[in-house]
Amino acid sequence: MTNPTKTLVSGPIGVKTLQTEQLQANPYNPRMLFDKVPLKTLEESISRVGILVPLTVYQRKSDGQFIILDGQRRWICAQKLHIRTVPVNQVAEPTLVQNIVTMFQIHKLREDWELMPTALKLELLMKEMREKTDRKLAELTGLDIAVVTRCKKLLSFPKDFQDKMLDPNPENRIKADFFIELYPFIHDRVVAKVPGYSPMALTKKMLNKYQSPDGGIRAVTDFRKAKQHIANARNAGKISVLIPKLKEFIEKVELTPDHLLIPAADVSAQARSLHAKVQKLQEALKDLDVEAYLGEEDLWRGLESLLHTIRKYLIAADRRIRE
User: Structural domain boundaries of the chain?
Assistant: First the structure.
């Protein structure tokens, strides 16, 4: 199979001006949600100085329509400002796979983007290419492997929940992070032993706990605490004690993850001790004179080994690693 990253959209046909109304949004843009506040800032800039960077477009052979590859936000603002023409850089029409891959590579995922629209485009790419391997999908799209994994978790939720992540009103929209953090909880093998709760039912219960004013889930990271208590109870052989607590936690909206704490299985003291050691090491390294220690090979090998270990545990805990 030809690697589409090697056969992206052909070179430019030319820079020209098109009527704003001639353009159309790309249906394969992984960014579907454009919130008002960031758009307003761009709109004010365009109203002062105009569109300085041409949009990238191609002309669809089937109907002659010009489709936007890059610059949809500029086009939206041009429409709002009633700008009749916009500068464009026209390129050759891509294939479907080229289109999707190009959109991913042009529209690099940023932290302020919603992830669910990206997941939907990734799903289309997986179907079109019959490819499900996280590493290969990451190479094709330019996404981090961790982002591909998160997208797949979102795709596992039924459409009703996906739609909650796609609400055009940011105030009503449920952040993708909620479902990503929820995923390991509802698929935990201990939670699965609680009778009468399917993943769908559990998701509804947890969403209610999160949205209710007096709900016991106050932050999406609360599910990590719940998983911690479950893992500790399992390691301590206290599952029979935990199951009734789990059922109460699921049913009673006000109960927090600490309801799942079993004193005999608590590791909080060890965690505090380890945290103190981490802080002490950070202090020791903060003002390290690198040049003065350049020849200390044992130190640098030890730090490299420590970095490898830290990365391993961060990945295991599904923590985002920021460079």
Answer: 4-154, 183-265, 281-316
